[in-house]
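Hello,

Our lab assistant flagged a job as stuck in the queue for most of the afternoon. It eventually completed. Since we weren't sure the result was trustworthy after the delay, we are filing this so someone can double-check. Below is the sequence as submitted and the structure that was eventually returned. Let us know if re-running is recommended.
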Amino acid sequence: MLEPIAELEFYKKQHRYRLRNQWLAHNVSDVLAFDMTPFKQAMIDKYKDGPDGWAIRGESIHDWLDQHLKGEKPLVPEKWAPWIDALLDEQFFDDAEILATEYRVVDPGRSCAGSFDFLLKKDGYIQIGDLKTVSSKKAVATRKPATAQLGAYASMLSRQGIYPDIGITLVVGPEKVKLIEQSVGTCLEAWEEAWDKFQVTQPNF
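-- returned structure --
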């Protein structure tokens, strides 16, 4: 397993990162969401909270996958069993060497950090992945890949001399999983384009 980056800390409540005791200006999620329309943001916020909200669903299933990939035997919350059972039936992780889970990466030059869900080696390829949970089978089919997000993580990970070959968006809903593979080159291009658009909106000091 990869050793964590020294002195890179994540503060969950604020959703912010610190490197060597200095707050970083940006995180990957905020960079990619800077131009979200007010309507889309309102819809996201509407379904975020509560016992059936996407926040608790995502956190619960991410926590389960993190422990599972580390070789532990986490309890399956009954509420989210249809999602987790679908992941257990998925053969993608079979015979894979797990290199990292819930791993934080950073680009000090851009004062930006983020966390990816898993890094593994399978069939001779290093694959970096992000897990997306959705509310229904229909939403699994329509969920788009996390292209730019994976590009951000791959770019930051390359600063440690690790160069993924494939980006994986793992979409899970109740009783259904979709695996989307993309070349890391495509992901990197999408991240650079997103970063350039974001930078245009930033004030010059």
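-- support follow-up --
The delay was a queue issue, not a problem with the job. The result is valid. The chain has one domain: 8-200. The mean pLDDT is 91.
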